[in-house]
Amino acid sequence: MSLKIVVLAKQVPDTRNVGKDAMKADGTVNRAALPAIYNPEDLNALEQALRLKDRFEGSTVTIVTMGPGRAAEIIRESLYRGADNGYLLTDRAFAGSDTLATSYALSCAIKNLPEVDVIVCGRQAIDGDTAQVGPQVAEKLGLPQITYAEEILDVKDGKITVKRRLERGVEVVEGKLPILITVNGSAPDCRPRHAKLVMKYHHAKTVTERQEQNDDYMFMFDKRPYLNITEWSVNDIQTDVNWLGLKGSPTKVKAIENVVFQAKESKRLAGKDTEIDELMKELIANHTIG
Amino acid sequence: MNNIIVYLEIEEGVVADVSLELLTKARSLATKLKCKLEALAVGSQLDGIGAQVFQYGVDKLYLADDARLYPYTSLPHTSVLVNLFKEEKPQIALMGATSIGRDLGPRVSSALFSGLTADCTALEIGDHEDKKEGKSYTDLLYQIRPAFGGNIVATIINPECRPQMATVREGVMKKEIFDANYKGEVVNLEVAKYVSDSDFVVSVIERHMEKSKSNLKSSPIIVAGGYGMGSKENFKLLEELASVLGGEVGASRAAVDAGFAEHDMQIGQTGVTVRPKLYIACGISGQIQHIAGMQESSIIIAINNDENAPINAISDYVITANVEDVVPKMIKYYKQNSK
Ligand SMILES: Cc1cc2nc3c(=O)[nH]c(=O)nc-3n(C[C@H](O)[C@H](O)[C@H](O)COP(=O)(O)OP(=O)(O)OC[C@H]3O[C@@H](n4cnc5c(N)ncnc54)[C@H](O)[C@@H]3O)c2cc1C
Ligand SMILES: Nc1ncnc2c1ncn2[C@@H]1O[C@H](COP(=O)(O)O)[C@@H](O)[C@H]1O
Fold this sequence. Notes:
Radius of gyration of chain A: 24 Å
Number of strands of chain B: 18
Radius of gyration of chain B: 22 Å
Order of helices and strands of chain B: EEEHEHEHEHEEEEEEHEEHEHEHEEH
Strand content of chain B: 25-35%
Distance between the termini of chain B: 57 Å
Bound molecules: flavin-adenine dinucleotide, adenosine monophosphate
Number of strands of chain A: 13
Number of helices of chain B: 9
Distance between the termini of chain A: 67 Å
Helix content of chain B: 25-40%
Number of domains of chain A: 1
Order of helices and strands of chain A: EEEHEHEHEHEEEEHHHEEEH
Low-confidence stretches of chain A: none
Low-confidence stretches of chain B: none
Structural class of chain A: alpha/beta
Oligomer: heterodimer
Mean pLDDT of chain A: 90
CATH architecture of chain A: 3-Layer(aba) Sandwich
CATH class of chain A: Alpha Beta
Largest interface: A-B, 76 and 87 residues
Largest sheet of chain A: 9 strands, mixed
Helix content of chain A: 25-40%
């Protein structure tokens, strides 16, 4: 048995390094101001996909990502680890999408692919921490979902068994294929890049990248079709533009505030015995403790 | 029609705290909006649910009772919500930001094309003017949440689509009984009309759920340790202080990551939110993500050897010293001087 696997992976700003100019006046993210990384849980998702590929000969792993041109990097990073090919959805019409509009675009792209058995996503992306896109893509494709997967245990007779990690426990569930799975950060880390695959794919590029770079390697793309990263715009996937971008997003950002905490007037102590005794006495007297 | 509805999370016949907290919040929103508060229980053997929730001011309780609906699976529960919402057209729908709520919410919002805001830390009612379109809206739900790793707070609205959906983490809202004698109406839903057999495509084979070990959320006194505690050993000192004071031990994420404390002890944006009478922060620097989960404590004591630690700004008492020195003194004084 071989499986057609799709991984939804996103390039995210590294929210662990946020500076002041990270948000634009209209409340959307100024991605240019932050380093872009592979969303951490999407790497866990990729690993689960690659393990299925290792186990079931002839399986393929296809990456789908939506983002600006530089998100092609996500596809290369995936190819270096063992993915087979990737599609970059990029178009101005996608800009400003909330999770519903994003999931709509991603679901249209998946419908544009040949049959799919398993779609694997990360649980959530660290730029928004919403964990919505996976389930919403599943709903739009009319597929069942298994969220919070920690390990895909088996695939047999058209059924997949998955161990889920929940807040207060674990569950093993079984679902029918085709299905969408979201993978938790507690799942095994992704394997590192493979040196041979880096050699093979480091010239993999989208059409736009090739046009921009105009380098000496242009001759390779005809002879080595696997170096083509497919780029899709709204016109390449059957979409209704009313469902995309800001228009297709029911949620709007009304206001953004920087977090400021009200400073209190505090009593300063140096930790001397008498000071601590005084403090404890006060707390007992006013019934905070005791 | 156009009421507020809260999805009740139920484990072994007991309504989860997060749902009761949401009912408390939703009750006050409903009063403000002059609409009714409704609750929806989906599961099996739900007879005892009314007795648990009416006192939170529920006007109408929908029950979708069917053996196949417990334990939770995504599609059947989604179908109940989607079909009921199509009939009842609630203006607001709330659920816990739990493993269940965050599996269910997005699916429902996708099916109804209604916006959903995850992990809200505050919910308010307010107006909105869209200057570009020249439209104004009244009585929208402001869905307020941290974004970008907690560095900013965003107010999200859904001007056009209904219901306005939001999830909230456990412990973020306060749970409070509205009226112990409050009685609402029970509506039994005919499950077959809402759920189809083809929804049962995922089945639960094994399930191990644990009751939360930590009583952090309800404890009036919390002694929390951070990375500055230095070791798991040193956390014992905090356990001792907590135990003499009758409190619980909490931790920062850095302390949890370092293995000094258990995961369910984490306080902050990605842990529990607490609001005790007394919060003693030991060796915690006080990054935004931590403060988000404890700033509403009545009295805050910071013990930190850095006089400029951010935690100091929000503390009532700032003790600039080493925890190893201060905590034993506290224990000693209390042992000698309390009855
Ligand atoms: C998306 C996201 C979510 C997060 N969620 C959370 C969350 O929910 N909760 C949370 O806590 N953090 C969270 N964090 C992490 C947070 O940003 C901080 O990294 C963390 O709170 C720091 O923990 P700390 O104060 O214990 O450690 P540190 O920042 O390392 O501070 C240690 C403190 O101990 C003091 N100290 C050292 N030795 C001593 C001594 N002997 N005596 C007294 N004081 C001493 C030091 O002066 C210092 O102030 C999150 C981060 C991100 C990006
Ligand atoms: N623009 C995107 N491109 C590809 N995958 C995405 C995108 N946005 C979200 N996803 C997938 O959906 C998951 C959840 O994202 P989120 O709902 O934004 O937290 C991510 O971990 C990805 O697997």
